Amino acid sequence: MMEESKLTCFQRRYLMECVKRGDTLPLQLHPTSSKEPELAVPAFSPPVCQRSRLSAKPHLRPAKVCQAGDAYSREKFKPRARRDLEKEKQRLQNILATGKDVVKRNMRQAQVQKKEEEIPELDRFEELVNEVQERREFLAEMEALGQGKKYRSIVLTEISQKMREMEIIDKKRSEETRESMTKDFPGGNKSDPQG
């Protein structure tokens, strides 16, 4: 243990002498002095712990002191906004009759309809056309900067994926158009071999 703690030869010798004599080991050991370490006596001695005695009688406050505080004062009544009882009756009648709260549902539907009207639907096909154009412009910029080789394969792969998605959308549109045309003309389509 002494070897691990990296003590000097003097410190090791001093500790071994203390052990042989049966003395207590010093708290601090001076690294190089050959004189006995002086025990530092604190200027003040710590106070001896004494238990404080609890009194046998509980410390209760008199009633006058308790009543003098705010503990017994009541808050004043502040009326709140009243609810419309006729609307409540109508609402409960609807719930008991149909099992649903019609008023809330109608309000929610109106809110959803307003949101749908505000957001114009973007055509996915147009979005894909714009994305393909952006990628072509990006690739042209990179080639102008001399970085075309680094991005060419990635961008061309993305463009081919977008083109494939556009073909799928175009095929669905043409099928929907064909179906709507055959519904309009019940005799069938002359060009359709199955009809």
UniProtKB/TrEMBL annotation:
Pfam family, one: UPF0193
Coiled coil (UniProt feature): 82-142
Ranges where the record places region Disordered: 167-195
Superkingdom of the organism of origin: Eukaryota
Keyword terms, alphabetized: Coiled coil
Biased composition (Basic and acidic residues): 167-182
Record-linked PANTHER family: UPF0193 PROTEIN EVG1
Name of the protein in question: EVG1 protein
